Hints:
This protein has 15 helices and eleven strands. By secondary structure, it is an alpha/beta fold. It folds into two domains: 34-117 and 216-326, 3-Layer(aba) Sandwich (D-Maltodextrin-Binding Protein, domain 2); 122-213, D-Maltodextrin-Binding Protein, domain 2.
Amino acid sequence: MKKSALFMLIFSLLLVIGVLQACGNSKASGNDVLKTVRLDYAYYSPTSLVLKKFGWLEEEFKKDDVKVEWTLSQGSNKALEFLTSNSIDFGSAAGAASLITKSKEVPIQNVYVLSQPEWTALVSLDNSIKSINDLKGKKVAATYGTDPYIFLLRALNEEGLSEKDIKFVNLQHNDGYQALVKGDVAAWAGLDPIMATAEQEANAKLFYRNTEFNTYNFLNVREDFEKAYPEAVEKVIKSYEEARKWIITHPDEAAEIISKEAKIDLNTAKIQLERTNFDQPIPGEQQVTALNAAGEVLQKAKVIKSNVDVEKTTNNLVEPSFAKKIIK
């Protein structure tokens, strides 16, 4: 090969590499045109169901020719898996579950509080199970990495017990309920609306409740999306705000939407809503305090590594600036 031809080949390769690097950097700097916003919806997140039902987000992005894609999350663990794998841009998950994911250096931030639900409690059909201490040596179901699982750990810790004192069975939420009904487990750390269904259909008893151990329902966003498309983040929060306010003023209609989407009894949907507070949409000190308390127990249980600075991780997770700008 002649030197001139070799020079041209090398020059061409360098030019291609330069173009590729420029393209890669343009996304990080927000120069790429946003084409699609990807979100999850979940039966444990009434706000997401209402927003998806009415299409307000689609209307918000229509003028920018941006499509909206929805993905069903069966639990916080799934929502966080989707965020981690870059399958969605926004995901609804429990605060403590989000903290676990953040502690693994997954770049997500909580930009909005969807609700403060009492969505989990310890549930049993066995009349002999009346307290936490009655769970010693018994099989207890929960979905690992979700608020019900964390709730179970904190409840055990309250009585000086740990996961080692029970026989933990890792099952997705609905499978845990089915295992309870079949008698395969003595108790289940439930999640609404399935938990409310268990009360209505199986006469299940919530033998341990503690609203302080229920962490908030967070709307998390991938940090690369947040940095590249801050205006899109604001539009998503604005639309979620519309859904939140609508639920507060239309609780009966909201229950009907939950009932239809989750395919549950209307009374069950109403129970779920009655246990959910929609009054604190801006993330802040209350969420930080709740997460630090949960993080302490999670670190003790070795769910979060001992070398993780929980307070620093929590502060890096909770980002109120977007919500403060939108919500007056």
